[in-house]
Write a structure and sequence with these properties.
By secondary structure, the protein is α/β, with parallel strands linked by helices. It has 3 helices and 4 strands. The longest helix is centred in the N-terminal third of the chain and has 22 residues. The N and C termini lie far apart (76 Å). It is found in: Cell membrane. It is a single-pass membrane protein; Single-pass type II membrane protein.
């Protein structure tokens, strides 16, 4: 009994495909080596990250509400007349900063307002000595 290898014509066919098995083996070995050695090489400092906190808005609290509209005008506690300058805002915030307990500042910024307007407001509030500055957001619609 004889065994026939190849086609009917008696010649062996050439295999033109690439054998990827050794490549996969090497890549898996490298991956395992990098996974094992990365904590040693990185030597990261252990820190405890703050947890997410979402406090509901309490309108009865004695907080300062600053509104920034899309034109960059700044309004104090919802009044209709805008604050004339950053110096005026700084004076008002300096008076609030010495109160005990210190009030929180909630900034209501229009979504079309320039970042520069809101950034200047935050900077002025922080310069006056206020510790807590936050943003008032509209909650997403319930589906």
């Amino acid at each position: 009994m004889a065994m026939q290898i190849g086609g009917d014509d008696g010649e062996d066919q050439v295999n033109s495909t690439i054998n990827t098995t050794p490549l996969v083996d090497i890549m898996l070995v490298l991956l395992i080596i990098f996974i094992i050695t990365s904590p040693v090489v990185l030597n990261l400092t252990k820190v405890t990250l703050p947890a997410e906190k979402n406090d509901p808005y309490n309108p009865d609290a004695k907080n300062v509400i600053i509104t920034v509209n899309k034109d960059g005008d700044i309004y104090w506690q919802g009044y209709r007349t805008p604050i004339a300058s950053d110096d005026e805002l700084f004076e008002k915030m300096s008076k609030e900063a010495v109160k005990v307990p210190q009030p929180e500042v909630h900034i209501r910024g229009d979504q079309n307002a320039r970042y520069e307007s809101i950034g200047k407001t935050i900077l002025t509030v922080q310069r006056s000595g206020i510790a807590k500055v936050g943003f008032v957001l509209e909650p997403p619609p319930k589906s």
